[in-house]
Amino acid sequence: MADQKHILVVEDEEHLAVGIKFNLEAEGYRVTIAGDEATALKHVEDSGSDLHLVVLDLMLPGMSGYAVCEAIRAQGNDIPVLILSARTLTEDRTRGFDVGADQYLNKPFELDELLSRVNNLLKLYDRRASRPVEDTVETFAFADASINFETYEVLIAGEPVKLTELEMKLLRYFIENEGRVVRRDELLENVWEMPASIETRAVDQFIRRLRKTFEPEPSKPQHFLTIRDAGYRFVAKPGDNGVREAAS
Question: Who contacts 62 (Cβ-Cβ below 8 Å, separation ≥6)?
Answer without folding.
Answer: 36, 37, 38
